[in-house]
Automatic annotation (TrEMBL):
The lineage of its organism: Bacteria, Bacillati, Bacillota, Bacilli, Lactobacillales. It comes from Enterococcus hulanensis. PROSITE patterns: PROKAR_LIPOPROTEIN (PS51257). It comes from the Bacteria. This is Lipoprotein. Residues 120-143 are annotated as: Disordered.
């Protein structure tokens, strides 16, 4: 009987010793809730109590806790993307750590992101549609102008030929350098190069104004064309006007 008692006591002692090596893991912080809601702006709030000297990380990012006099805290955390869980690790002043698993409801953030994507896609589609419509309108307007020019070209070319015919041989040809007669080259008989400056100036004034009147009257009344006078043999520039002063015709210095 005594032998059984001693065996029983020995077992209790052994069990007691084995229990002494297993210290129950204690809480480092107290969280009000581990199930949290992420707002549409990507923010969620952790609340609880943490003794002074406690450090906290969430998904390996350090979090600064602002405590009140009772060590209570409430911190707002921001996430850029919807997530369903997060790992909060707390460490006390002795270096002990404990992990707390947070469950996050990110449905509001997902809805906002999807709405922004949809809005962006809709806006982009609208802008593309408006740009296409504007291009189509510009193309139609350009086509109408080109058609009107094409219809008036035969009459314009005939009138320009009359200038050549009545010039007494001094004007040998008038050729457009732009498709819409935005600029023209007037070729002058080479002999005119050796005439007086007064006569040469009179020629480019008279012919230049007449060419401008015919082209603006037929094609583009708002933008007088650039008129360049060229000696027909040497292809030297005789004179002309400029975009800044289309009404003035100047001789090139010889």
């Amino acid at each position: 009987m005594k032998k059984r008692i001693w065996v029983f006591v020995a077992l209790i002692f052994i069990v007691g010793l084995s229990g002494c090596g297993k210290e129950k893991e204690s809480e480092i912080i107290t969280l009000k809730s581990k199930n949290l809601v992420v707002s549409g702006n990507g923010d969620f709030v952790i609340e609880g109590n943490a003794p002074k000297g406690t450090t906290v990380t969430i998904n390996n990012s350090p979090i600064t806790l602002t405590r009140d006099e009772d060590d209570n805290f409430s911190e707002s955390i921001h996430v850029n993307d919807p997530i369903e869980d997060a790992s909060l690790v707390a460490q006390d002043m002795k270096g002990n750590t404990k992990e707390y698993k947070l469950k996050l409801d990110s449905s509001k953030l997902k809805e906002k992101i999807n709405a922004e994507i949809q809005e962006s896609s809709t806006q982009r589609a609208l802008e593309e549609s408006q740009a296409a419509a504007q291009k189509s309108s510009i193309d139609e307007e350009t086509a109408r102008k080109n058609q009107a020019i094409a219809e008036k070209l035969p009459e314009l070319q005939s009138n320009l030929q009359q200038i050549i015919d009545v010039s007494g041989g001094y004007v040998t040809s008038i050729l457009p350098t732009g498709g819409n007669y935005d600029a023209v080259d007037v070729y002058i008989k080479q002999d005119m190069k050796y005439d007086t400056e007064a006569n040469r100036q009179e020629l480019i004034d008279t012919v230049g104004v007449k060419v401008q009147e015919l082209i603006t009257g037929s094609l583009n009344p708002e933008n007088p064309p650039l008129v360049t006078f060229i000696y027909d043999s040497t292809k030297e520039k005789m004179g002309g006007n400029s975009a800044f002063h289309p009404e003035r015709f100047k001789l090139k210095k010889q």
